[in-house]
Specification:
TIM Barrel, binds 1-O-alpha-D-glucopyranosyl-D-fructose, eight-stranded parallel beta sheet, about 15% strand, Oligo-1,6-glucosidase, domain 2, alpha/beta, binds calcium ion, five-stranded antiparallel beta sheet, about 550 residues, about 25% helix
Length: about 550
């Protein structure tokens, strides 16, 4: 059986607004991406996932789309996109588009028509409800970005549902006309020659008809039991697969917050006829007294348990997507690693080893390959992201929690951490723009930037390049079985990969001090494929954040 290409690929996520600005307006754009394709080729990745590049009023940086078949004015034109696609393909790089179809922008033509009410064709494109008898919202649900999930519309004299911002009304997937329009739009992009879709919050598209009040979390009720993996979600995805996906050679990954391994096998099992992979959130999900806002990392034993459960539960049934960070998460090295100057490079390489040696398709978020770090926010006025701005208001300004208490939490996980401009070199604005960037550059760009790393054979960049190279060379890295060792160690993440006679030992220390570790007999005569310390592990101990992959000697 042939292995599908997406199982052997490494994916690189671009957040276009912050990647590379070609014309000095401070906003990244498509020509900017084109100018950096050779850099990506050098890194060795196979696929680029583009966060949304469609026409959008940017309430949520492109995740609020007003025209699915036009390019965002600041990013360029459709000609620029066609050029990007052909330039990428010429280099053997594939392009995966972000598909945001749980909701549109309120400025989308469909919504503009729908809010008129009456008997028009767009009447039931969104989820409209009358208020309660007292005029209050239909239920107590809160939106993901703060405030209620219902917005009263004067024009139509009804409430509409928005699980995200009020400028992101939820589409009504129960309406066959909505599905047809979405599938036609997807077909249009496929005919252009794109290579796949990352599907934004696809687990939310089907809502239970009843829509009862949810359990109160903070100020509002929780909608998840009624919207996550809703009653018809699999039916809709199978229809999408049948009408669109199956007709092309594509890669699909669904963003499915709240997914369990069992559910994942429904969405993306080997032959369920829906998607190829899902993004699970167990290892990045936080839930503390202030919801997702916390500065408390989980203990390593828990992290290992989560990732190992995903590794073993999908074995032979589905395929993992592997990631530490993305445009919604803090920087990997700051959250899972140690961004203090002494350990930043070591721990960035260690995290890369830990993730890239697992079974599944690895995703690299722009700047992760440089070990870029969280941003040193000074005050709430530094936030650009709608989620952080609203969260600060909802939790702090309302008096639910003090600034002193909340500040370390929100800065540790704010999505803005991931969205500062890419650090290309040590010239002004890190070489991202010749103008004023839409978001400030992280002040550490003089030390952390691509140009410096390309000149340093020991850099995080070349370490990623080497990891990707190993994946291409050793089938055990793609296909091998995963087996966790030492589950109870609080400091070491150690596992094996096994394929026939091939066996790899992956050693990762999450500790900032030396830990004793005798290399197992079986691997004593093995060869070290990669390590973040010169010479590889010395017998008996692992140094701070030491990582290594040892290949058993063949018998
Ligand atoms: O994210 C949805 C999601 O499940 C969350 O991780 C969310 O972004 C947030 O961090 C909740 O606390 C997707 C996109 O990745 C995100 O950028 C969009 O803002 C969101 O959907 C709405 O389209
Ligand atoms: Ca620009």
């Amino acid at each position: 059986m042939n292995t599908p290409w997406w199982k052997e690929s490494v994916i690189y996520q671009i957040y276009p607004r912050s990647f590379m600005d070609s014309n000095g307006d401070g906003i990244g754009d498509l020509q900017g991406i084109i100018s950096r394709l050779d850099y990506l080729k050098k890194l060795g990745i196979d696929v680029i996932w583009l966060s949304p590049i469609y026409q959008s009023p940017n309430d949520d940086n492109g995740y609020d789309i007003s025209d699915y078949q036009a390019i965002m004015t600041e990013f360029g034109t459709m000609e620029d996109f066609d050029q990007l696609l052909s330039q990428a393909h010429m280099r053997g790089l594939k392009i995966v588009m972000d598909l945001v179809v749980n909701h549109t922008s309120d400025e989308h033509r469909w919504f503009v028509e729908s809010r008129k009410g009456g008997e028009g064709p767009y009447r039931d494109y969104y989820i409209w409800r009358d208020g309660k008898e007292d005029g209050k919202a239909p239920n107590n649900w809160g939106s993901c970005f703060g405030g209620p999930a219902w917005q009263f519309d004067q024009e139509r004299n009804q409430y509409y549902l928005h699980l995200f911002s009020k400028k992101q009304p939820d589409l009504n997937w129960d309406n066959p006309a909505v599905r047809k329009d979405v599938f036609d739009m997807m077909t249009w992009w496929c005919d252009k020659g794109i290579d796949g879709f990352r599907m934004d919050v696809i687990s939310l598209i089907s809502k239970t008809a009843e829509m009862p009040d949810g359990e109160i979390r903070g100020l509002y009720g929780d909608y998840s039991p009624y919207c996550v993996h809703g009653p018809r979600v699999h039916e809709y995805l199978r229809e999408m697969n049948q009408k669109v996906l199956s007709r092309y050679d594509l890669m699909t990954v669904g963003e499915t917050a709240g997914v369990t391994p069992k559910e994942a096998c429904l969405y993306a099992g080997n032959d369920t006829g829906e998607l190829n992979m899902v993004f699970q959130f167990d290892h990045v999900g936080n839930c503390g007294p202030y919801g997702k806002w916390t500065d408390k990392r989980r203990p390593l034993t828990q992290l290992k348990e989560i990732l190992s459960t995903w590794q073993t539960s999908l074995e032979g049934k589905a395929w993992n997507s592997l990631y530490w960070d993305n445009h919604d998460q803090p920087r990997a090295v700051s959250w899972f690693g140690d961004d203090r100057p002494l350990y930043r490079v070591l721990s960035a390489k260690m995290l890369a080893t830990c993730l890239h040696m697992m079974q599944g398709t690895p995703y690299i978020y722009q700047g992760e390959e440089l070990g870029m770090t969280n941003y040193p926010f000074k005050g709430p006025e530094d936030f650009h992201d709608i989620e952080s701005i609203h969260a600060y208001e909802e939790w702090c300004k309302s008096g639910l929690v003090s600034h002193q208490e909340f500040w370390p939490c929100i800065t540790a996980v704010s999505r803005d951490n991931a969205r500062t401009p890419m650090q290309w070199d040590d010239t002004s604005q890190a070489g991202f723009t010749t103008g004023t960037p839409w978001m400030p550059v992280n002040p550490n760009y003089k030390e952390i930037n691509a140009q410096a790393q390309l000149a340093d054979p020991d850099s995080v960049f070349y370490y990623y390049q080497k990891l990707i190279g190993l994946r291409k060379k050793y089938p055990v890295i793609v296909h091998g079985r995963y087996c966790l060792l030492m589950p109870d160690s609080q400091e070491l993440f150690v596992y094996e990969r096994i394929l026939g006679d091939e066996k790899l030992l992956v050693l990762c220390s999450f500790a900032d001090h030396e830990t004793s570790f005798p290399v197992p007999e079986e691997f004593a005569a093995g060869s070290c494929l990669i390590s973040n310390y010169e010479g590889g592990p010395k017998n008996g101990a692992l140094r701070p954040y030491e990582a290594a992959v040892i290949r058993k000697a063949s018998v």
